[in-house]
Amino acid sequence: MNNWTKFEKIKQIKENDKNEVQIQFRQAVDEFEKYAEELLHLLKKKEAMEVAYQNSLIDGSIDKMKGYYNYLNYLTPNILSVQKKVNHARDCMNKLQEELTQKYIEVKKFEKIIDRKKQVEYLLINKMEQSTMDEISIRKYTDSKGR
């Protein structure tokens, strides 16, 4: 019987694939979080510099204004670069999440197949046992009638 054991092996392979994708997904999430935190840090710096720049406009200090303006011009390309990294990391993370979902579905399919095969096997065994019990009962009955 045990025709479900081959499906068990396939399920184990699919489970291993799912676990590998899960590890890759976790790494992608970590990378996304790293770049997102870096972007947040740069945006906070930019916001603080803009406030300082606005205050320097009121104070009238040209040297400070120039310094803040130059620093803001320095931050902008960095922010754009990190935004690209964040978007790329998000795309990778979403792609891996979809792949992980598919792997999870595949594993569940094989679990259902295995459950069905086991159920059919269980029913066949019960039917065979019942037939054997019926046969034994009939033999005992005929043996007792023949005496």
From TrEMBL:
What is its membrane topology? Peripheral membrane protein
Q: Keywords, A to Z?
A: Bacterial flagellum biogenesis, Bacterial flagellum protein export, Cell membrane, Cell projection, Chemotaxis, Cilium, Flagellum, Membrane, Protein transport, Transport
Where found, per UniProt?
Cell membrane
> Which InterPro entries does the record match to this protein?
Flag_assembly_chemotaxis_eff, Flagell_FliJ
Tell me yes or no: is Coiled coil among this UniProt entry's keywords: no
Q: Which domain of life is it from?
A: Bacteria
Q: What is its main location?
A: membrane
Give one Pfam family: FliJ
Q: Name the protein family.
A: Belongs to the FliJ family.
Name under which the protein is recorded: Flagellar FliJ protein
What organism is this sequence from? Gracilibacillus marinus
